[in-house]
Amino acid sequence: MEGKILGNRYELIEKIGGGGMATVYKAKCRLLNRFVAVKILRPEFTNDEEFVKRFRVEAQAAASLSHPNIVSIYDVGYEDNIHYIVMEYVNGITLKDYIEQKGALPWQEAVDITIQVCSAIEVAHANNIVHRDIKPHNILLTKDGIAKVTDFGIARAVSSSTITMAGSTIGSVHYFSPEQARGGYTDEKSDLYSLGITMYEMVTGRLPFDGETPVSIAIKHIQTVPIQPIELNRYIPTAVNAIIMKAIRKGQDQRYQTARSMLNDLYRCIKDPYGNFVVEESYIANPTKRMQAITDNDIDEYEDDIAIRQINNEDEYVAPNSSKKTIWIATAASIVVVALLVILTIYMVNKPAKSSNTEEVIIQNYIGKDFNEVRDELEAKGITVDEPNMKYSDEFKENTIMAQSIKPGQPLKPGGFNSIKFDVSKGPEKKLVPSYIGKDYKIAEAELRDNYKLKVEVIEEFSDFPIDTVIRTVPEANSEVKAGDSIKIYKSKGPEIKMTEVPDLTGKTLDQAKQILSNKNLKVGNLSPSSPGAGLKIIKQEPSAGQQVQEDTAIDLYFEEPAKTSPPKQSTTKNNNENENSKKVQSKTIHIELNSDNTSDTVTVFARVTPSDTKEPVIIYPYKKVNKNDFPLPLTFDIPQDGYTEVYVEIDGEPFIQEVYQYEE
Length: 665
Prior knowledge:
There is one protein chain. This protein has six domains: about 5-90, Phosphorylase Kinase, domain 1, CATH 3.30.200.20; about 95-270, Orthogonal Bundle (Transferase(Phosphotransferase), domain 1), CATH 1.10.510.10; about 360-425, 2-Layer Sandwich (Trypsin Inhibitor V, Chain A), CATH 3.30.10.20; about 430-490, Trypsin Inhibitor V, Chain A (2-Layer Sandwich); about 500-560, Trypsin Inhibitor V, Chain A, CATH 3.30.10; about 575-660, Sandwich (Immunoglobulin-like). The protein is built from 14 helices and 39 strands. Strand 9 (about 140) and strand 10 (about 145-150) form a beta hairpin. With about 675 residues, the protein is an alpha+beta fold.
């Protein structure tokens, strides 16, 4: 398929991927002069209505979505029994390849990628589209770390809340949900399950379920509880572990119910990776029961039943009709004994141990002082210092006292029940900068200023990112910052448009034109004829000379007609012959040898000779395909008497021989 042009516009360059349903090629759009990806339905499925339908579903599903983390669809077409989709070309690798190269990813990077994919899923779900095949193979990573979801080949637009495909399972066995394994209904929560499996693989470097057959893996999705990620990688924070385990619950009602709820937890775990905020989903409540009204008789029976007590560690039954007076006396005696024990214990614990000093200590103003020094000082005087309240503070340095429970100037007696408590600073709260790459800069600016209390500076740059989206931040994503720090947001102004003047190329050869255009940051466009011979001159160009165009514009070139081919002159003698004008000519044969590094089966040969007497070029090989087994290739031509013949040979469009052969007496 390489070299084929679809829709008179998309030239297929090379195969870059493929799956069970289609093959993907890198291609060049001749109209917009940019690279695109073209997905072509495999030939064996072109007559299968179901596969053709799925292929169209992908185009319709993805084309309706617009999001920085979803691969854009540009065009769709059908030509020569070829169904194809033209989409954004992503210069990067799949997340699956990335995991195989890196192994288990740092949890911060895994969370960042998951946030981007979850954002894409949220947009798809908002448009009533369930992807149904979320997996690392369908997530592309650009060199800038942007994740893009692709391959909506089995997506379904949902008109209700679920999707059902009776008798079949849709998705990839290592990543699909229990309901997909059962061939049952699937909905938005099925995508979140697959995303949870993908996140599990990112942080552990392995899949939660594996087996010898697809059936055995599917059964594990339905029945087996996986090993928790934190048991495989002890560096995973508890919040990240909890998010993954919630996403891959067996029951749909136990998972995240929406992509937004999962996103909220993902954003929160960046700030609080060890927080206990992941809430278990459960819609099972205590059922409503009908009960009889409670009567006075029920109350009396309950009071009589509490006469059952344990006496001397033995169970003894006291009849309901026994006197209640005995019970109340025993209870009161027990309370008195317990109270005396508590008072004695408190006294023993709080009696002075470090100092026998009984003089009152006047409390000073300790705010702004080091907590450890103050505690040592007070305890040396017999004052009890309680465990401090540790709080973040932008004003006080770490371990500095911010407040005290007893005001300065008040006395405090050592060894008593009194104590002093302090609020101590933990220093400024440090947070991790989220990744905003590819997102609207206004959202990033507002969050960093309002939620992170940072000083934000927005800087504009030209880039290939969409206008007003974030190119990068400084400090970069996952860097630690604290309130009051400065951060720079670099937002895109779109591609820089530079203009240049089209040079005059008439009368120039192709090689000369290439050099001139390169100096002007322009490109060679279409050639007419498509393979002009060396030495042929340009007679026309589009756009014409003097026009102002954008840099990187392609200039179409039109060449003069090549000289007509004439057959070699027939020799009448071995060496010296007479031509039509009775002039002597000398026949010459040379042999062309291929270079050793040429590995192709055939090469294209062009050969032209120009005798000195006529100055008219004669084409011997008009761009002819020659099998490499025919080399050394003989080339016979005539040399005029007392003159010479110029010989020019191209191999695969590149100059190979440029020689002058003289007439020999």
